From TrEMBL:
Any Pfam family: PepSY
Compositional bias annotation for Basic and acidic residues: 123-133
InterPro entries reported for this sequence: PepSY
Protein's UniProt name: Peptidase
Domain of life where this protein originates: Bacteria
Lineage of the species this protein comes from: Bacteria, Pseudomonadati, Pseudomonadota, Alphaproteobacteria, Rhodospirillales
Basic residues biased stretches: 113-122
Ranges where the record places region Disordered: 112-133
Domain PepSY, residue spans: 46-111
Length: 133
């Protein structure tokens, strides 16, 4: 019989527990993508490409990661969030990482985090100092 040193037992237990969870998580991700794809086909959400172009045009920089999140409001989701949101991570020209959240149906920017102090996550045209009177 294989005997493991006592200090390795917790690590082995965690690894085995993780392996049991992975198939369920993969299935849930696949189902989420299928629902998002169907929403796009049905015209309930906008294509990702347009949202990414809008984010880069507004904030500049390079896209690092993009996700679509579905909020069914049955669990602990914020009830004010739309059913689908695009989450975009962007590396700005100034070297900051921003997380942008867009309503996937309307293309509206819902949240922006990570901008320099004083910008408050708003695109340049929305900042008081950038408005032309």
């Amino acid at each position: 019989m294989l005997r493991l040193p006592f200090r390795l037992v917790p690590s082995v237990v965690l690894i085995l527990a993780g392996l049991l969870v992975l198939p369920g998580a993969a299935r849930a991700d696949r189902e989420d993508h299928d629902r998002a794809r169907e929403a796009l086909r049905a015209g309930r959400i906008l294509p990702l490409e347009g949202i990414v172009d809008k984010a880069v045009a507004t904030f500049g920089g390079t896209v690092l990661d993009v996700e679509i999140e579905e909020h069914d409001h049955d669990d602990d989701d914020d009830p004010d969030l739309p059913p689908f949101v695009y989450e975009i991570k962007l590396l700005t020209p100034g070297g900051r990482i921003m997380k942008l959240v867009y309503d996937a149906a309307s293309g509206e920017l819902l949240a922006a985090r990570g901008r320099r102090s004083g910008h408050h996550g708003r695109p340049p045209s929305d900042r008081p100092q950038d408005r032309k009177e």
